[in-house]
């Protein structure tokens, strides 16, 4: 799924994506290890090569953030509110061009986006923010939070700010 404004790839249906309140797609994330690839050639290490002290430490990363090369960004509550206001106008314009006379879908977006925006702003300190790979500030900011268990991360993206990518 591509950001309708920047064309950054933000999410894929290869993840378990669920629609929430008609305006958000959520997908659970997982922490994965990258790096530290051990290659066994089957040969014995010679005495002088036994321990070269190479640092092959693994790095724990969020699978969705890593896969789509999302870039962390930060906001204070006021600046995020201002960003949201401008972003919603862009999405509304995109929907009006794409949907044309589909007033029901546009109304669903308006009501649902207002409600979800209020939820995010109400729990602002719990969210992390990411831009797409291009780091274009005009595009969608991907939201990351944790489920009620406090352990499982998930991302939230605006359904109406996406366009499908044909593979």
TrEMBL record:
It comes from the Eukaryota. Gene3D superfamilies: Metal Binding Protein, Guanine Nucleotide Exchange Factor, Chain A. One of its GO terms (molecular function) is calcium ion binding. One of its GO terms (cellular component) is cytoplasm. Residues 1-167 form the TCTP domain. PANTHER family: TRANSLATIONALLY CONTROLLED TUMOR PROTEIN-RELATED, TRANSLATIONALLY-CONTROLLED TUMOR PROTEIN. Belongs to the TCTP family. This is Translationally-controlled tumor protein homolog. It comes from Xylaria bambusicola.
């Amino acid at each position: 799924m591509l950001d309708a404004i920047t064309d950054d790839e933000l999410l894929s249906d290869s993840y378990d994506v669920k629609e929430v309140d008609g305006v958000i797609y959520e997908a659970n994330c997982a922490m994965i290890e990258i790096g530290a690839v051990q290659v066994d050639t089957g040969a014995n290490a010679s005495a002088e090569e036994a321990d070269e002290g190479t640092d092959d430490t693994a790095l724990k990363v969020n699978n969705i953030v890593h896969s789509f090369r999302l870039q962390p960004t930060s906001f204070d509550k006021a600046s995020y509110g201002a960003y949201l206001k401008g972003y919603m106008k862009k999405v509304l314009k995109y929907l009006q061009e794409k949907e044309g006379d589909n007033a029901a879908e546009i109304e669903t977006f308006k009501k649902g986006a207002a409600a979800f925006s209020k939820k995010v702003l109400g729990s602002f300190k719990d969210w992390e923010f990411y831009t797409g790979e291009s780091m274009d500030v005009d595009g969608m900011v991907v939201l990351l939070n944790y489920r009620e268990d406090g352990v499982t991360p998930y991302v939230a993206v605006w359904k109406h700010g996406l366009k499908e990518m044909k593979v």
